[in-house]
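Dear Dr. V.,

Thank you for agreeing to look over these. As mentioned in my earlier message, I'm a first-year student in the group and I'm still getting used to reading structure tokens, so any feedback on how I've presented them would be very welcome. I ran two proteins. I've put each sequence directly above its structure. The first is here:
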Amino acid sequence: MKNSFKILFLYLTLALLTVSCQKEEDPTPACLQVEVIGADCDSSWYILKIEGADANGQQGNYLGQLQNGYVTTDNLPEAYRQPGTKLEAALELNGEYGPRCVTVTVMYPAVKVTRVCQPARSQG
């Protein structure tokens, strides 16, 4: 009887350990309000201005590594490349590569647009 309890306890402990060690998905960043400023120094790179996350009611959500300021991206969908366009998008840092600028210029962090959450709105 004692051995049965030990085996049952060991089985339950291993089952609990297995369930708790399963890989969980990383949280996806919340959508942020961004405005397209214009083209960057390298072709197909665009400068985006991230509006303050607390101004958008995003407090308490996972925002990712970026919360406000300027960034640059090369995978902005073509429909959103017009300067002054505002949209909501999820961004994450792109540590793999960035624009190659030949002049002395301000370098912004490179990001990837992971998804567009709301359609573009032109400033007007």
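The second protein is here, in the same arrangement:
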Amino acid sequence: MISQTPVGLRILMLLAFSCQVASQTIVESLPGYSGKLPFTLETGYLGVGGLDEVQLFYYFIESERDPAVDPLLLWLTGGPGCSALSGLIYETGPLTFDFTASATRGKKPKLKLNPYSWTKVASIIFVDEPVGTGFSYATNSQGYNISSTLAAEELYTFIRKWLINHPQFINNPLYVAGDSYSGLIIPQVVQKIVKGNEVGTDPPMNLKGYVMGNPTTDENIDYNSRVDFAYRLNLISEELYMAAKEDCHGQYKDVDPCNEACISNVQAILDCTSSLNPSQILEPNCDYLSPKPEDLNWNKGILMDLTDHITPTPRGSDSDLWCRNDNYKYIYIWANDKTVQDALNIRPR
């Protein structure tokens, strides 16, 4: 049963819930975007864990329609370990990179508005989670000991504290949303919210549902379903599909090395699909995938060098040089620029 204590009194009673006062900043402009941002962007840190040793960084963007009544989304990017910026810039947020304008050698990435942003109808909290992702960090080594279960617990604490600090959103319809690996985290967070409401944990949350895009659920089921998916999209022949189904008994992961027929069929399926971009099957698979820190021998110098190597060709041109994964290089350059971090009020570490 949800507590009937007046919201204002509950908030006063809960001020002691946070050991460390949350830092939050309204960001009015960003490097790469011309002029003042036409939406409200707040960034900040919230401490979770027994002693607030885990500092989770977030981006909060108010709905461009009516933030007082529009839904509030807690957005969790997958990975695990993909920055919240990935979801904000490449998926549901109001900004994206202007790839054409950014293609000039040596120039820093440019930003433009995303006409399909979900923030046109909802307010969204993008969180760098779990700890160690993006700009989130821990104040001691123990804070980096993380699991999906602990990550869900920390996120539940995060949304509770966030609502305490933003009481004007307590009554808004709340949705927990995300993609990919967050499919393992979202159900746990939702369950904790439901149980918290049942026992009267403050603040009460107006949970309405959850949204999961291509979520990870069960590793074995997810992997095996790819063969059915490939068949239904006509990426493999019916003959090959039926042979694999019979010889492998629906188990295409960790195949018995003695089952030569199954191994042969699985290899044939891989041969048919390996040239396709698994995230966009209408495009070829790129040889040069999006760079990761370990691939780049991570240092500040390579970030500057990258601007001299990024010359993406706009889609639809006659060039064969364009690769969708090239677009993801921009985020490493932009987010690691000191002027960007200063604008976002990132803590020095």
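From my reading of the second output: The domain at 7-217+338-343 is CATH 3.40.50.1820 (Rossmann fold). The chain has three domains: 7-217+338-343, 223-274, 294-335. Does that match how you would interpret it?

Kind regards,
E.
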